[in-house]
Every structure is written in structure tokens, then in C-alpha cells.
Amino acid sequence: MDDDDTLPQEIGLRRRVNFSPELKNEVRKVLLEHEEQGGKRRPYIVAVLEASVWVAIACAIIVYTDFMEVVQFSEYINRFYFNIGLGFISIFVAVGLYVIVWCSWINGDTEWEKVPTATFPVASFSVLAGLLCMTIGLWPLWSWFSPFIVFFIMMGFCMPFSII
Questions:
Q1: Start-to-end CA span in the chain (Å)
Q2: pLDDT higher than threshold 70 for residue 100
Q3: 140 and 146 Cβ atoms separated by less than 8 Å
Q4: Residues 6+ away with beta carbon under 8 Å from 43
Q5: Which of 37, 41, 142, 164 might form a disulfide with 146, Cβ 3.0–4.6 angstroms?
Q6: Is residue 15 predicted with pLDDT exceeding 60?
């Protein structure tokens, strides 16, 4: 049996699909790169698809809950906690931009483990505090749906940065 015939089965596709030799070679390269990295990192296309799904879910929630209009004009939102949550999320975004733009692009450090030690605890604390405060701020409006709405919107906001 030819090695090209086993490729579609290896990646979980049906046999009735005919692949071009160029596509088979490209898939083989991606799989070999993935194996060379010890399977630690997902292929880029998987990361892009996952980020796209999170963004689509966040956009659907924003559209179907009228999130932007409600946040601007609703009287039921606890503005104190909501604004503090936005402040914490701003700190999280600033730390993320520092790591992505300054450390990765300008300094050329591709290994984020070498970034100064306080960045990741600050980012972790600020995103958790921001999610908590935003949930408390939106609780009078959406009650039990608030944690889910805030979580999905935040994941839709963060996931595109994971593919950079």
C-alpha cells in the first residue's frame, strides 16, 4: 500500500476525498513539524480555528444581548464595579501588549518564560479581578447569565492574541 493512501486516514478525513500531491506534502510537513516539537504546540490552523470560534461566540453574545447599548445606557448596571472591572481589564491588556509588542516584536524574545517575573502574576490577577468586578457590575441586569456572558466575551477578546 502506498504511503500517500494512508495520509487521509492518519488525519481523520474520509477516504472519498481526493487530495492533490501538493496538499499531501504540505499536510505531511505540518505533521512532521508538530512531531519534531514533541507535540507540545498545536498546528497553526488549529489555533486559528479555535480563536475564530471564540470570536464568533463572543460576537453572537454581543449582538444578541445588545451588550454595547446595554452597557452604555442601562440603569441596572452597578457602574462602580463595572468601571473597576474595566480598569483591571485595561491593566491586563497593557501587560499583554507589553509582552507581545515590546518583548516579542521589538526585543525579539520568542520565549515568554524569560519575560520579567512580575508580568504574568499581574496579568493573571488583573484578568481575574476584572472578570469578577464586571460580573458583579452586570449581575443586577443578567443575574446568573452574567458570568457566562463576561467569560465568553473575554475569551473572544483574548483568543486572537494567542495566534500572534
A1: 40
A2: yes
A3: no
A4: 30, 33, 34
A5: 142
A6: no
Contact 93, 120 (CB under 8 A): no
Helices (H), the chain: 3-10, 21-36, 44-64, 67-73, 79-97, 119-142, 146-162
- Decide: residue 73, CB within 10 A, 0-12 exposed, 13-18 middle, 19+ buried: exposed
Place of cell 474520509: 14
Grid coordinates standing for 130? Answer: 476584572
The mean pLDDT value of the chain amounts to 82
Distance CA 88, CA 94 (A): 10
What is the per-residue pLDDT across 46-88, written as a single tens digit (0 to 9) for each?
888 889 999 999 999 999 999 999 999 999 999 999 999 999 9
Say how far apart CA 69 and CA 152 lie, in whole Å: 18
Residue type, 40: K
Average pLDDT on 120-127 reads: 92
**Percent of the chain scoring above 70 in pLDDT:** 81
